[in-house]
Amino acid sequence: xxxxALAPSxxxxxxxxxxxxxxxPAATVVAASFLSALPIVSTSGWYPDFGFLVFTSWRLLRxxxxxxxxxxxxxxxxDLFTGYPIGFSIAxxxxxxxxxxxxxxxTMWRDYWIEWVLAAVLLAMDQWLQWRVxxxxxxxxxxxxxxxxxxxxxxxxPFSAWLVSRIDAWRLGR
Amino acid sequence: xxxxxxGWSRRAQYGLFFSFxxxxxxxxxxxxxxxxxxxxxxxxxxxRGAALDVTAPVASALHEVTATATGLVSGAGDYWDAASQNGxxxxxxxxxxxxxxxxxxxxxxxxxxxxxxxxxxQAHDAIAAGRIVGSxxxxxxxxxxxxxxxxxxxxxxxxxxxADGLVGRIIDAGSVASRVLLVSDRANIVPARLLRDGxxxxxxxxxxxxxxxxxxxxxxxxxxxxxxxxxxxxGGLYPPLVPIARIVKLDDDGAVAVPLxxxxxxxxxxxEPPFQPSAVAAEQPSSPADAP
Lengths: 174, 292
Prior knowledge:
Chain A has helices spanning 2-6, 24-34, 50-61, 71-82, 88-106, 112-136, 147-171. Chain A is mainly α. The longest helix of chain A has 25 residues, at 112-136. The radius of gyration of chain A is 17 Å and the shape is globular. Chain B has helices at 10-39, 45-80, 82-117, 277-283; strands spanning 128-130, 132-135, 143-146, 159-161, 166-173, 178-182, 189-194, 200-205, 211-215, 228-231, 243-250, 255-259, 269-271. Helix content of chain B is 37%, strand content 22%. Chain B is elongated.
C-alpha cells in the first residue's frame, strides 16, 4: 500500500510524494524526541513521552512507516534526548513493532476506537516499564503518581494521530 | 514481518524473515544496553554527555522566550494586588532587618568560637554558575539540565545549589551542559536536619516535585508546618547549612516538604565542589576521574 503510494500519481501532475517521503516518518519521530530539549522545567513530570506517542501514531496509521529495524536507532535517539536509561526505548520500541505486527494478524477490523485502545495499552506499558526501571535504580515511587501523565498521554493520542495523518498526506502529496 | 506470507516470491519471504530477525535483535540489543546502564551507569557517560551538548544550546536559546512569558504572567498577577503586597513586604522587610542583625552577631560569635576550636572547613568556592534550561518531562525521575558542563570544570557528583537552597547534584556532565539529579527525585537522599532545633532527619524526593522528610530517630513526629530543613553535611556529598525545603504537610511518621529552590523559577544555579571529595569517589567507583 505505502510502496504503491510512493510512486508518482498521474492524476495530479506535479503533486507526487516528496523526494524524501520515505524518511519523513522517522524524522518526525526524532523531532518529537527532540521536544524534550524545550526549556520547560517540569517538577511533576506530567508531560507525555512525545517520541513514543508519535512512534505509535505512525505505526498504528501504517504497517510500514519505516523498515522494522529502524525502531532500535530511533529508540536510541529518544533515550539520548530524554535522559532515559540507554536501551529502554530501544527495547520497548522494537518490541512495539513486533507486538503490533502480531496484533495486526489477529484483528479482523480496525477503527478509531480500537486504535485508541491499542495506543492506550502501549502507553500504559511505557509508563509501567518506566516505573519498574526507576524502582530498580532506587527511585521507587507510588504507581498512582504515574497515572496523571498516563491519562494525559492517552487523551493527547488522538491529536497526535491526527497530526501524523496530516503529515502522511503531505509527504505522499495527497 | 515474518508473520504474513507476502506471496510466492522467495526474495520477499526472506526479506520479511530478516526484518523479523532484525527486530528481535533490536529488542535483545536494547535489553542488554538497558541492563548495562542499570548496573553500570557510568558506561554511557560519554555518549550521554554528547547528547546533552546537542540539546542544551537549543534549550538555552528558547529559555529566554519562556522566561519572558512566565515573567509576564506572574508580573500581571503582581499588579493585581500591589497595595496589599506592598504592606506585607514592608512588614517582612522590618522583620528581616532585625533577623539580619541577629544573624550577623551569631556569625561573628561563631567565627570566634571556630577560631578557638581550630575547626577548619574545606574552602568551597563556586566552580561554575549556570542556568537551569530544561528538565525531564515524563518519567518518575526528576532531572534538570544545567547550562554548564565539564569545560567549566563541572564533574559528576558535584552538588548544585542556588541562592534559595539546594538544587541537587550532577549525574551526567557533557562539555557545555550537565544533568542534575534534583532533590525531589526519589533516588536523591540528603542527610539533613531541622533548622529550628537541629534534629537529624533524612530528606528523600517523592518524584512529583516535593520531598519526604523523616526523622532519624523513630518516635515523636518532630515537624511543624513551616519548618525549614537544611543539609547537615553528613556523608560529605552536600555541604552543610544549605537550606533544602519548607514543610507544608505532616503525615504519620514524617512530613512532606516543598524545595526552597524551585527549579522552574531559579535564574542561576551554582555548582560547588563536593564537600568532601572522597565521598564522591566512594559513591562512583567506576569513574576514576573523580578520585582525589
